[in-house]
Amino acid sequence: MEQYSPTFDPAEVPPSPRAMLQYEQNRRKETDVRDAVQKKTFTKWVNKHLLKCRSAGRRIVDLFEDLRDGHNLISLLEVLAHESLPREKGRMKFHKIQNVQIALEFLRRKGIKLVNIRSDEIVDGNPKLSLGLIWTIILHYQGDVVTFMGHYTQSLPGTRKLGSRTNIVSVWWCLFCLQWILIWGRMWTF
């Protein structure tokens, strides 16, 4: 028989391998759902701005694939910044890396801090870094916007205001989706 010990804590008992496996499967499923929602949300945001692009036919179908050559990324930045950027016209991987590098250097010149986002990772279609890059662009170019759930208004530092009511609704919707994902994820952690 086990003797009662005042220092015994049931939380210190390691979980069973089956419980660990189930936890890991649930965590992966939640991560996949969150990534899918972010991908869909960011794709809509990018397409909304690419409609304003001078070169017809710019449209994102698969965010991770369509950012790989750098042309859509450069077009997005041209629309948002109202500036023209150079681009490589070739189709080899070197040209794609160069185009993404042009976009990343432009963002750095604008004072946007890019942490661990490299051009070769975007060209390879890394989902996490592609989502992170688009989120960073959204935060910078959406500006003085956030009225969240009717409670809070904040001007984000270092941002440029685009100024239309549609943009305010767009960022509100993105933040609402992300908040919902975070709350939903917290509910399933226990």
UniProtKB/TrEMBL annotation:
Keywords: Actin-binding, Membrane, Repeat, Transmembrane, Transmembrane helix. InterPro entries: Actinin_actin-bd_CS, CH_dom, CH_dom_sf. Residues 36-142 form the Calponin-homology (CH) domain. The chain crosses the membrane at residues 168-187. The keyword Ribonucleoprotein does not apply. It comes from Mytilus galloprovincialis (Mediterranean mussel). PANTHER family: SPECTRIN/FILAMIN RELATED CYTOSKELETAL PROTEIN. This is Calponin-homology (CH) domain-containing protein. One of its GO terms (molecular function) is actin binding. It comes from the Eukaryota. The keyword Hydrolase does not apply.
